[in-house]
Design a protein that fits this description.
This protein is α/β, with parallel strands linked by helices. It has a single domain, classed as NAD(P)-binding Rossmann-like Domain (Rossmann fold). The two termini are 32 Å apart. InterPro entries: NAD(P)-bd_dom_sf (IPR036291), SDR_enzymes (IPR052184), SDR_fam (IPR002347).
Length: 266
């Protein structure tokens, strides 16, 4: 009966993780969210049972430590698999390049992205590490992005979402450092995994945003002519889980891989 904790579980990919994992009653599933009541209401509406909802922002270390204590009470001090999905995708820069933005705006978004996606990642991993140490699986998967691949960016001139991509590249190295400290010494698997290009859009886009995204999709098609477009969140979660389940410290420790378990981002 493995235990899972998913951060950023109130919507999008994180919620898809919760739906997928809770479908198996043998799993113990924890959903870490910023606003607990609305998530519990959504779970009830969707008929999802057996999910333990915890409230904490990933940039709030005391709240994360309190959440870890709640998990510990339910699991007798352990956690098998931590999937750190929560992230700040970005503000206006998600649809623009660094060119044409003010240095002040760029610096502000870089700071916010690093605080959530790098500092926040360190907070989450540190808060739940004692439970992972006591778990049977001892696995930590940090959700990242193929946009953080420098070769991809350079080869195909992908200039969008700079703060997000830069912060994810930093997060990947942070994960490598955790592996260096925990992999061989303690047998704890820590690695980064990209979910692929996933269709989680719920709100309306402006015409300009649609144009920009269309251009980005064209770039992706250039990168991978076989690519058929964004996949569903459920498809992504299924593929990611397959990778996580077969991943070992020896093969995947500190790695930055796709939902296929390699460097095929699309």
């Amino acid at each position: 009966m493995p235990s899972y904790l998913i951060t950023g579980a109130s919507r999008g990919l994180g919620y898809a993780w919760i739906k997928h994992l809770s479908a198996d009653p043998s799993n113990t599933v924890f959903a870490l969210v910023r606003i607990k009541p609305s998530t519990e209401e959504k779970l009830a509406q969707d008929g999802l049972q057996g999910v333990h909802v915890l409230e904490a922002d990933v940039t709030d270390l005391p709240a994360l430590q309190a959440a870890a204590q709640e998990v510990s009470k339910i699991t007798n001090g352990s956690l098998d698999i931590l999937i750190h999905n929560a992230a700040l995708v970005g503000g206006p820069s998600a649809f623009t390049t660094v060119i044409g933005q003010s240095p002040e705006d760029l610096a502000s978004e870089l700071t916010d992205s690093f605080h959530s996606n790098v500092v926040g990642t360190s907070y989450v991993l540190n808060a739940f590490l004692p439970l992972i140490r006591a778990g049977k699986e001892k696995k930590i998967a940090v959700i990242t992005s193929g946009m953080a691949d420098l070769e991809l960016v350079n080869k195909h001139s992908i200039a969008l979402a700079t703060p997000y991509a830069v912060s994810k590249a930093a997060s990947n190295l942070l994960v490598g450092k955790y592996h260096a400290a925990l992999g061989k010494e303690e047998g704890i698997l820590v690695f980064s995994i990209s979910p692929g290009v996933v269709n989680t859009q719920t709100g309306e886009l402006t015409e300009e945003q649609k144009k920009v995204i269309g251009g980005m999709m064209a770039q992706f098609a250039e990168v991978a002519p076989h690519w058929k477009g964004p996949i569903t969140a459920e498809e992504s979660v299924t593929k990611q889980l397959e990778v996580i389940q077969r991943a070992t410290v020896e093969e995947f420790g500190g790695a930055f891989v796709s939902h296929y378990g390699n460097q095929q981002w699309l």
